[in-house]
Predict the structure.
Amino acid sequence: MVAWNTLRRNYGKSIFVEYAFSRISQGGHTNQSQHYAGVAFDVGQNLDNAGRAALRAVAVNSGVWSYVEPGSLTPHWVHVDKRLSPPACPVGGYPAVGMGSKGVYVFVLQDALMSIGYTGTGLDGAFGPGTGRAVVRFQGSQGFQQLGW
């Protein structure tokens, strides 16, 4: 990932990574909503305050991260993330996907379905019959009206 490589290169030394995760959604539809696809890192837990401040400054100055959390919110680590854009609505969200859709948002859907036990045909970013069946099984388990594919 370009953003991560830029952070390491500009920081000039190895960076301790405790958590790296893909972000599906967190929060609601507010100006603080975190509904997006992307990747996030919580790093620098082994650094002192000055080290974390230096790492946070490098992340901000690199210009490649969508969000660098202020030290006041994460005083014991540095949180950075790269969000895919554009969001589906002004405050976040996902675009509608369906049969024939392709791309990162379908991949995120497939990953989410697989993580809760609804498998389709794998993680390929293409919404085909396998993904459709997984969606229908999930909808049925939640009592949603099933659209069928």
Summary: Residues 27-33 have pLDDT under 50 and may be disordered. Helices lie at 2-11, 49-62, 104-115, 129-141.
